[in-house]
């Protein structure tokens, strides 16, 4: 079986030729690359899924306050608020879950980089929110133990397929491509995963990923005081909602005029042309606003 691919087009050709399920393919690929058994791949996957579940519950049960005080329990505040514009429980759950995970990260808790620490809430936030909505989970979800159901595992595995392509054609690092490469990529991964959970073909999954990623192009990485908190934590929630809308549009039959592979190349070109000052070093953007400078001076003093 061929395990090397550099684009969605190449991957789709392999899947079609081998007549293999995308999730099964990524298990085979990971086992081959890591030189381990497929059972071990699934064990490692379950370990990571469990960490994402734990971080969601922790971030919703107890308001997370970071040492810098820039993160102040936004997940709990948002999720429990009676004042709301939308009645969509999936929308609110996905945003709250994404906030919770990233606040746990900012507060020194354990998370899974997805694909980075600064974007860690988006993919698992969307996947778990969808899962919990389908299963009528309570406001604060219960812990679920491994082994996890196939649909849940498949969602995480499918998200990784989008990430592999982005990593090879562009970058997943904010220091290289700005936050479009972190939160933008994560939203595309989440859109791909959720589309697969909805039973869509991989072509449609990549369509949703393209729709999502297009709307993160040019996103600066400008962390205030150099910390992965402002704007990172709240941006996770916005990116999660971006992914939901991309899937909703795909389900409605809306197509991205620019295919996923070309969107990824556009992201790389934009990242290459970005000023270094908006690539994670806190030398531009929000980090150099009067308030951003004041926060930096206060924390460094």
Structure description:
This protein has 301 residues and is mainly alpha-helical. The chain is built from 13 helices and no strands. Helix 4 packs antiparallel against helix 5 and helix 5 packs across helix 6.
Keywords:
0% strand, mainly alpha, 301 residues, 61% helix
The proportion of residues in beta strands is under 5%
Indicate the percent of residues in helices: 55-70%
Annotated CATH topology: 2-methylcitrate dehydratase PrpD
Give the rounded overall mean pLDDT: 97
Describe the sheet with the most strands: none
The computed structural class is mainly alpha
Beginning-to-end CA distance, first to last residue: 57 Å
- Which CATH first-tier class would you pick? Mainly Alpha
Secondary-structure element string: HHHHHHHHHHHHH
Instruction: Assign the CATH architecture.
Output: Orthogonal Bundle
Q: Could you give the count of β-strands?
A: 0
Task: Please indicate the count of domains.
Answer: 1
> Count of DSSP helices?
13
Shape, please?
globular
Task: Extract low-pLDDT stretches.
Answer: none
Write down the Rg.
19 Å
Question: What is this structure's SSE topology?
Answer:
Blueprint: H1 8-18, H2 22-34, H3 38-61, H4 74-80, H5 89-106, H6 122-134, H7 150-169, H8 174-177, H9 183-197, H10 202-214, H11 232-251, H12 260-273, H13 290-300
Concise description?
The chain contains 13 helices and no strands. It has helices spanning 8-18, 22-34, 38-61, 74-80, 89-106, 122-134, 150-169, 174-177, 183-197, 202-214, 232-251, 260-273, 290-300. The protein is globular.
């Amino acid at each position: 079986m061929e395990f090397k691919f550099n684009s969605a087009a190449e991957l789709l050709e392999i899947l079609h030729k081998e007549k293999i399920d995308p999730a099964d393919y990524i298990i085979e690929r990971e086992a081959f690359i890591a030189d381990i058994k497929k059972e071990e791949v699934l064990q490692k996957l379950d370990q990571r899924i469990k960490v994402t579940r734990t971080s969601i519950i922790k971030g919703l049960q107890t308001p997370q306050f970071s040492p810098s005080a820039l993160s102040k329990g936004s997940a709990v505040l948002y999720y429990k608020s009676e004042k709301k514009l939308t009645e969509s429980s999936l929308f609110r759950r996905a945003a709250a879950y994404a906030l919770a995970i990233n606040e746990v990260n900012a507060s020194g808790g354990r998370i899974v980089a997805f694909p980075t620490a600064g974007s860690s809430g988006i993919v698992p936030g969307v996947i778990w929110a969808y899962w919990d909505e389908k299963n009528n989970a309570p406001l604060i979800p219960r812990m679920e133990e491994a082994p996890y159901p196939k649909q849940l595992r498949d969602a995480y595995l499918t998200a990784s397929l989008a990430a592999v392509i982005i990593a090879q054609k562009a970058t997943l690092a904010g220091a290289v491509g700005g936050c479009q490469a972190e939160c933008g990529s994560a939203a595309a991964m989440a859109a791909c995963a959720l589309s697969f959970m909805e039973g869509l073909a991989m072509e449609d999954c990549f369509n949703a990923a393209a729709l999502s990623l297009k709307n993160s192009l040019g996103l600066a990485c400008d962390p205030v005081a150099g910390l992965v908190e402002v704007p990172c934590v709240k941006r996770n929630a916005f990116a999660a909602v971006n992914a939901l809308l991309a899937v909703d549009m795909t389900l409605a039959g809306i197509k991205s005029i620019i295919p996923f592979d070309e969107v990824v190349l556009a992201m790389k070109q934009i990242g290459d042309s970005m000023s270094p000052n908006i690539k994670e070093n806190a030398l531009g953007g929000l980090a150099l606003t009067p308030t951003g400078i004041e926060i930096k001076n206060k924390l460094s003093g």
